[in-house]
UniProtKB/TrEMBL annotation:
HAMAP family recorded: LpxC
Example of a GO MF term: metal ion binding
Keywords for this protein: Hydrolase, Lipid A biosynthesis, Lipid biosynthesis, Lipid metabolism, Metal-binding, Zinc
The protein's Enzyme Commission number: 3.5.1.108
Keyword Hydrolase: yes
Name of the protein this chain belongs to: UDP-3-O-acyl-N-acetylglucosamine deacetylase
InterPro entries, sorted: Ribosomal_Su5_D2-typ_SF (IPR020568), UDP-acyl_GlcNac_deAcase (IPR004463), UDP-acyl_GlcNac_deAcase_C (IPR011334), UDP-acyl_N-AcGlcN_deAcase_N (IPR015870)
Active site, per annotation: H265 (proton donor)
Gene designation: lpxC
Cofactor list: Zn(2+)
Family from the record: Belongs to the LpxC family.
Organism annotation: Nitratireductor aestuarii
PANTHER family, alphabetized: UDP-3-O-ACYL-N-ACETYLGLUCOSAMINE DEACETYLASE 1, MITOCHONDRIAL-RELATED
Pfam families: LpxC
Enzyme class: hydrolase
């Protein structure tokens, strides 16, 4: 899609935050071209304050992605929502939220995606701007790594490796489109281990987690959820879902390939910041006319 997009009408969702356990409602509003994805806190004490979903506003990446403004307002756990935004190719939204954490819903991004489809996607009279990767940028932490490399399209290659036999080593590679995202990624749920519950609770985290919104692996290294998995390799698909959301704060759709091994929110966020910190690693390009694809693009001013 060569033109910017937004929603045709307002749509809302309610749930609880996976870490805070607190109820929250989000309203997704159409926005004009060039506004980007902006959160607006509408709860008491932070009412009317804006937080842009951009790498420059990322405050934390421990267990989830958190954005914040200079007033100290934050919105936690934006990755599933941003993943759906990116997967459907939505460029501009005003997101009103009445608490500090995006609702976890069912632990995947499908409910966000369904809400956006219900609202309808509006094409705007403005060209879309892309972030084209010009050279490899890689970050590492022990055995884990993540990188962005040049590629004529938008591709994700994600590999995970867990000691538990319930997960093991899984790998996926796909060229991203709205159709592929909807079918292959959007249903994949977040996951965790029962053995980690006590320390998470002690840290004030995972207070809203349950079998209704997470795939849980028990002490016997088996999936606890009665209905089992949605995909045989749901774990790596969810890690891909997370990566799509984490990279969505780079400033526009990526023309390039993201690759990772045992990565998470922190490394995903770090590679985005490393790219943006190096002007020779990327360029901003603008689509010229509908239907021409990535080859017919010109460098934006």
């Amino acid at each position: 899609m060569d033109q910017q997009t937004t929603l045709k009408k307002r749509v809302s969702l309610s749930g609880v935050g996976v870490h805070s356990g607190k109820p929250v409602t989000v309203h997704f509003n159409p926005a004009t071209a060039g506004e980007g994805i902006v959160f607006k806190r509408v709860d008491s004490g932070a009412e009317g304050r804006l937080i842009r979903a951009h790498a420059s506003q990322v405050a934390k990446t421990d267990l989830c992605t958190v954005i914040g403004n200079n007033d100290g307002d934050q919105v936690m756990t934006i990755e599933h929502l941003m993943s759906a935004v990116s997967g459907l190719g939505i460029d501009n939204l005003l997101i009103e939220i009445d608490n500090s954490e995006v609702p976890i819903l069912d632990g995947s991004s499908i409910m966000f995606l369904d809400a956006f489809v219900e609202a309808g996607i509006e094409t705007l009279p403005a060209s879309r701007r892309f972030i084209r990767i010009l050279k490899p940028v890689r970050v590492e932490a022990g055995e884990a790594w993540a990188e962005l490399v040049p590629y004529n399209g938008t591709r994700f290659e994600v590999e995970i490796d867990f000691a538990t036999p319930a997960i093991g080593r899984q790998k996926i590679g796909l060229d991203l489109s709205a159709r592929i995202y909807s079918r292959e990624i959007s249903h994949a749920r977040t996951f965790g281990f029962i053995k980690d519950v006590e320390w998470l609770w002690a840290a004030g985290l995972a207070l809203g987690s349950s079998l209704e919104n997470s795939v849980v692996i028990g002490e016997d290294d088996r999936v606890v959820n009665a209905a089992g998995l949605r995909y045989p390799d749901e774990f790596v698909r969810h890690k891909t879902l997370d990566a799509i959301g984490d990279l969505a704060v780079i400033g526009g759709p990526i023309i390039g390939c993201f690759r990772s091994y045992r990565s998470g929110h922190r490394l995903n966020g770090t590679v985005v910041k490393e790219v943006l910190a190096d002007p020779s690693a990327f360029e901003i390009v603008e689509a010229r006319r509908a239907g021409t694809g990535y080859e017919d693009i010109t460098r934006a001013e």
